[in-house]
Amino acid sequence: MGLSTIRTARFLLRPFERRDAAAFACSVRESAAADDPWLSWGSEAYSEQDARQWFRAAADSREAGASSEFGIFSAADGAFLGGVGLSRIDPQNRVASLGYWVRPTQRRRGVAYECAQALVGHAFAVLGLQRVEIVVAVGNDPSVGVARKMGAHLECVAQNRLRIRGRPAAAYIFALIPRPSEPQP
Fold first, then answer.
1. Which of 74, 63, 66, 62 is nearest to 20 (CA)?
2. How far apart are CA 40 and CA 150, in angstroms?
3. In this model, does residue 2 exceed pLDDT 50?
4. Looking at the DSSP assignment, which residues form a beta bridge with residue 172?
5. In CA terms, which of 30, 35, 155, 164 is 20 to 30 Å from 181?
6. Is the pLDDT confidence value at 72 over 80?
7. Is 69 contained in some domain?
C-alpha cells in the first residue's frame, strides 16, 4: 500500500513522520491529563520515543497492507490535531475498521467528522473496500456522534468487544458501505 496524502477543505491527512513525534507525544499526554477514558493506550508519561515506536509500527503495518494510519494536520498552519486510520484491513473481504482521535484542545470543531469522511471516501474509491466498520465503546458519545453524522448504520452492541484500561467493554458496531453513486471496484 503506497503512501498517500489526503486533503480536505481544512486538513491534511498524511502518514506520520519522525518529525511529528514531539507534537504527537504532547497530544497524547494532553489527552491523558484530561482523563480521556477512551484513550486507554495513552499516559502522562508518553514520550517521543513511544511516538516513534508507534510510527514505525504503523509504517510496517501499512507496508504489510494491514492498516493505513494518518496524522491529522491543519492545512493552514501544519499544527498536529489528531489521527485517523483504517486498521484490520482484510483485502479478501474488502473490509476495514475506522478509528479516529482528536486532541482535547481541537475537539468539537468537526475535525474527526471531516477527516473520517475523507478517509472513508479514500477507502472506497482508492483502496476498493466494500465495508468500513466503526467500533465504538458504549459510553463514548462523541465518537458515536461522529459515526452517526457520517451516516453509519448501527448494526449491534457487542459485549466484551473492546478492552478499555484493561477491562472488557461493550461496543457499538457501526458500518458504512459505498453509496450507489460511489465506485465499487
1. 74
2. 24
3. no
4. 136, 157
5. 155
6. yes
7. yes
Question: What's the predicted TM-score (pTM) here?
Answer: 0.89
| d(C-alpha 75, C-alpha 95), whole Å | 29
Residue 118's CATH number: 3.40.630.30
pLDDT in tens, 130-142: 999 999 999 999 9
**Please, what is the end-to-end C-alpha distance for the chain in angstroms?**
16
88 phi and psi angles, rounded to 5 deg: 50, 45
Distance CA 95, CA 153 (A): 15
User: Cell numbers 462523541 correspond to what residue?
Assistant: 142
Amino acid at 30: E
Gap between the Cα atoms of 63 and 29, Å rounded: 28
Please give the residue range of the domain that contains residue 148. 6-176
Per the structure, how many domains does the chain have? 1
Kindly report, residue by residue over 10-36, the tens digit of the pLDDT. 999 999 999 999 999 998 888 877 766
